[in-house]
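Colleagues,

Please find the record for the two-part complex below.
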Amino acid sequence: MTAACHEPAPPVSLATAPALRLLVVGNPNVGKTTLVNALAGTNLRVGNWSGVTVEKREALLRHGGKSIALTDLPGAYSLSPRTPEELITRSALISEAPDAIVNVLDAGNLERNLYLTLQLLEFGLPMVVALNLMDEAGAKGVTLDPAALEAALGLPVVPMVASTGQGVSDLLERVTAAARPGSQRGSASAADLIAGPCDPRLPDGPLPSARAEVLAAASSLTAFAAGRKGIAPHSARYLALALLEEDPSLRGRLLATGQAPLLEQADAALRSLRAAGIEPLLEIAEERYERAREIAARAVRDFHPRRTLTDRLDGLLLHRYLGIPAFLLIVLLVFRLTFLVAGPFVDLIGGPLQEVTAGWAAGALSAPFLPGFLRGLVGGAIIPGVGTVLSFLPTLLVLYLAMSFLEDSGYMARAAFLADRTMRGFGLDGKAFIPMILGFGCNVPAIYATRTLERPQDRVLVSLVLPFMSCSARLPVYVVFGAALFPRAGTFLVWGLYLLGMSVAVLVAYLLRRTLLAADGGSSILELPPYRLPRLSVMWKHAAEHTRAFARRAGGVVLWAVVAVWALLAIPVRPGHAFSQVPVGESAFGTVSSLIAPAFAPLGFDSWQAAGALIPGFVAKEVVVGTLGQIYLGEQTASAEPLGFLEGAGQLAAATWEAVVAAASTLPLVLAPPSLAAGDAPDPASGGLVAALKDAFTPAGTLAYLVFVLLYTPCIATVGAIAAEHGRKLAWLTVGYQLATAWLLGMATYQVARYIL
Amino acid sequence: MSSQGLPLRDLQDGESALVLSVGAANPMRRRLLELGLVRGAAVNVVRRAPLGDPIEIRIGSTHLALRAADLGDVLVTPA
């Protein structure tokens, strides 16, 4: 995090700048994402904060002829950060001096939300309050008077229901007006709510003397800070109060920017307050809440608490006896939905689409002046390799949609609540449950999701074990081998592997907690937000984004891996064969693979083909299947019959329609009582590969192979994510110890299984 | 108000009380104060997780899950 206290920026720089820069700030779970989506529409760009990997959501929009740059900051309860995400929010406020702040409030939870508002007011920046979730407040039995709130705060207040778009244009109107120099903004007296002794709009009871002393100390420290070079004027008051609150995250930042004298001044003030038996942290928090309560009291017209839908749902979903069965049922439903609905589309991409593309390619490349190996490269490597990976897109999309639903609806937090006690037995936080479940989709976003954990060492611990969670890229490997060697028990096999991955993750976490990363259980606060029906558009955007990233990978890393494997397969190592005319066993790939193959003898699969397919798996696990296909089937696919364009298009259209019908007809099955047949994994268009694998592997060797694939080194993208979060050393450590774990457990599996199977 | 108070975690499910203080040594003192567990605030124990821990409490309209271990020095007095 770069400290940038030394950029003194005027609070309002609008007069000349063409764009308004807005920061959107609010507590978690106040519908901020929905609001930003409603404001930005399709203009939303998602990137990363420079230097860190928390999602940065920005949009450029136009309103009334003005261009507005919008930055959505991570949700924060207060400006005393406990997590890296909250730190980002605070840093942006201190250093960026936006033209205005949009503070999003949950109308049904005014008091707590106003705590942050009061803190934001300490910055002398123009601000508009978006009073969101008015509908939910109504359902809770709260009747609000936005005008009264506006008067009490001295800030523009816009009542809204962001999910329906209600109030959005009004908000834009008020923000544009507020950001104009000289317009209504957090007026001086409003900004003084805390540090100032009197406010004309609020009843001024006699302050307890301790509180008065803290406020006096804050005022003089503010004056001192404001006079210092390198302190942005708009952040002086905030800094003064945060220093008196002994915010531990601030010291390093101020020291690094040469503000030691300010720290000394603050320490002196703290010493004298403490000598008088006064605790500034407590006084300031109580003062803010007292103010928040007064303001809320003016704004709330009527409050008749009602039993909400959330209360009712939680009565069931968090029930002492029914809660855990309900949880298991939900997970089961998600997985069934994923595989049943996506299955026909997986078959479509893996089968007809791939065949037709191969046919077109064969037609296009049959021209006599083209070198013959091109046909082999395209038809034998690129199409089947990349095609196999792409055939996985439908599964990913549905899985992401389901995950997104669970997260946005508020259920994920409940899952963490239910799991906390058990997870703690293994030295993990209940909150770690969310990234771990996300790991089933893809390990990469899951690694980033560890940022919601408060302690750095917890984030390291979870990142170290997370890759054992079986991400969806590993599934095609299980499916193909399951179809080949355990056709009747495919579902059991897949479930077993998922369970094994989970068990290894928690056991390794337990061991690490006892040894290298020893620590107490830590502390945890988890908010259980109200249940909300996620917006389909938001879910879709989220899922599509991640699926697109996966597809891009298929066009990037995966494509290159496939081409590299093909080239290695084509290069002869012994004389007597021409390029691309070499039997696979005598190619460079075969030679390299033969060298490492003996290492896998104790695991029951020491053929060079099996060992070789694991190598490109370092790039991405889904490539394992593609490579197996290349090794065992390369030539078959290459000999695809040339297809005319129209002919191919006709076949495709028919196949697509079939897939849609098949997917629709599986929907009722999702709710059908569990039956193994219904859950049986779809058979991707790898009939040939299935047959080849059946001959090449023993059942015991297959189990060991799958255990190895499940556990060994995560893909490059995950290693990259770990390196970005925790440094290269830890990334290498992960690579090494997971390879060792995979080998050991693979061996154990084989040694046990060969006596049973 | 009685002067000593009882730990929040000793309340039964469904019981309400007023916050007296959050212990000075509580690792989450700052955040608990920020979330509204200040002197005089009304707090309600909603339920316990299936294994008895963590505990869901309600303060205002905020529902929080906290571990019993962290609620030992959060003292309350019957409303």
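The first strand of chain B starts at residue 6 and ends at 7.

Comments are welcome before we finalize the supplementary table.
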